[in-house]
Design a protein that fits this description.
about 260 residues, alpha/beta, Rossmann fold, five-stranded mixed beta sheet, 10 helices, 9 strands, about 45% helix
């Protein structure tokens, strides 16, 4: 039945990092759509080996490790392994959302706190309820991550430390692929999963996106921060109720079904 394939006949542009985009592509195709992958950003480790002693001391202190992304989890545990460091059993763990929590489980780490809404503001609120001011809170983050947790908790007397474990940089190969795809396809949906993908895309094809929107292309943003990044360029987007890839897919399916009724 056609209802089993709500994205049939739809072309979806996926702009996230290629290491994370494959599952997105597979889900689009399972729903009948065509997914075009153009990785606009990539990541590299930012934490130098010469701070391993400081990281070890931080791990030994009573308190929390706070993970704000899947990338943060991967880069942090890779760093620990490379420097022969271990996560003490006494350390409490907080994760920004379900995907990050699941990734931590692959590193044999259980999550103690996760907010209902997968954004830093809600993670900070959850920490206010569960952490004690005497406990050190260490945030594992990327170079473009916001300082929400530190800004929220330090005024309340918490000691908050941040380790920038990875950097987000433009994917030059993916940018060229985007330019090529723009000349070959018409997109029903352009998806954005981070503010950094928005900024890179708009630098490369911002004026084209405005033309595409005028021609019924819809932009789908994963959450409010990504939505707001698009708005700074005058681009409106649709945002799912649940700030996940699955939420984006459900939204596109709903929009496609609605089009069929018109």
């Amino acid at each position: 039945m056609e209802n089993d394939f709500p994205l049939k006949g739809k072309t979806v542009l996926v702009t996230r990092n290629k290491a994370q985009a494959k599952s997105f592509q597979q889900k689009v195709e399972a729903l009948g759509g065509k997914a075009i992958l153009t990785s606009l950003i990539t990541f590299r480790r930012a934490l130098p080996n010469d701070v391993a002693k400081q990281v070890k001391e931080d791990l030994a202190a009573p308190g929390w490790l706070v993970f704000t992304s899947v990338n943060g989890a991967d880069f942090f545990f890779s760093y620990l392994q490379e420097n022969q460091l271990f996560l003490p059993a006494h350390k409490k763990i907080a994760a920004v959302g379900e995907k990050t929590a699941r990734r931590l489980e692959t590193h044999n780490v259980s999550v103690d706190v996760m907010p209902k809404d997968y954004i830093a503001e809600q993670l900070a609120e959850a920490l206010k309820q569960h952490a004690e001011p005497a406990e050190r809170i260490t945030v594992i983050k990327g170079n473009l991550s916001r300082d929400v947790i530190k800004q929220e908790l330090v005024p309340l007397g918490f000691e908050v430390k941040e380790w920038v474990v990875y950097e987000t940089i433009p994917d030059e190969e993916g940018i060229e692929a985007l330019k090529e795809a723009a000349g070959q396809y018409s997109f029903d949906y352009v998806t954005f999963t981070s503010s950094s993908t928005v900024h890179t895309f708009m630098h490369v094809l911002g004026e084209e996106l405005k033309k595409w929107q005028a021609n019924r292309t819809s932009c789908i943003s994963i959450g409010p921060l990504t939505r707001d990044a698009l708005l700074t360029y005058g681009i409106t987007s649709h945002t799912p109720d649940t700030f996940t890839i699955d939420g984006m897919l459900e939204l596109m399916c709903s929009m496609s079904r609605e089009e069929e009724r018109i």
